[in-house]
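TEACHING EXERCISE
Course module: macromolecular assemblies
Task: Read the component lines below, then compare them to the predicted structure of the full complex.
Student: A.B.
Group: 4
Components provided:
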Amino acid sequence: METDLQTQPSLTIGTHTLHSRLIVGTGKYANYELMGEALRRSGTDCITVAVRRERLIDAAGNNLLEFIDTQRYTLLPNTAGCFSADDAVRVARLGREILVGIENPGADWVKLEVLSDTKTLLPDPIATLEATKRLVADGFQVLCYSTDDPVIARRLKEAGATSVMPAGSPIGSGQGVLNPNNIRICLEYLKEGDPDYPVIIDAGVGTASDVTLAMELGVDGVLLNTGIAHALDPLQMADAMRHATEAGRLAYLSGRIPKKLYATASSPDEGVITSKPR
Amino acid sequence: MQLSVNGRKHELPEGSTVAELIAELALDPRTLAVERNLELVPRTQHAQTCLEEGDRIEVVTLVGGG
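Instructor-supplied answer key:
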């Protein structure tokens, strides 16, 4: 029987169950119409959103929510733009308040980002750990954007993070998964005695092969935004990312062959009618 | 009285509530969240929460993000 990923077990993160293993951001599209179509083509059922000031001057401006079917997507509010634990906690609470207002199931979780500096946008591990503890105590399911360091990944899980989401490479850099070995160790640490603990690659993937490679490592999902939004053809790239996620997942489940230095013939040695070189 | 709304000076009658501010701004209260002096004001408290001179108010909503 053909393998259909729709019938495969889906991705469970805390109390949320997703059918797609691809989580897609809603930022940086040329316009909201394009964003809506790209989200649909990506096959995702979970999308990230940011919390920002209402534009009081341009009251006629488009609102993101007019372009998103909030029945179809679970929203994952982020704390992007926060450089301290205090600010991240504030923004997480504001995001929850909005999602309660629009009755979206994503009201009880948050993608926690506490960044260190504007140049790298790398997470501040100490502030992230502090914010995780406070948000867990406040009832949030916390999905932590993290470095790919296995030690901080383990600390975040111990602090109650619902998922640890190591960066493949810096946000929007398109460099892919720069340190697959660290991701392997993160997976080993986080899933030890807890194989269903969700680990998601968040940030840095630039193209389909980056997503597939991440999934082949055995991560549970990939979160991306710029790779689709800034592709020359975002809709076609959304298709590619969907296939890449499924291909990588299937390949991981299938068990790849070991790598060898020398060749192994695919056709039988018996019955050849020719002679071999010495 | 004068207060700050999203970083801009804003005049309101004495005793105005958060709900009255949102109505004046012609915003849909379901799609926003309000913070008063760094503390969230839950939607259920908008009508009861009176604003004061010098309050720093943030009114936020959702935008595209990663």
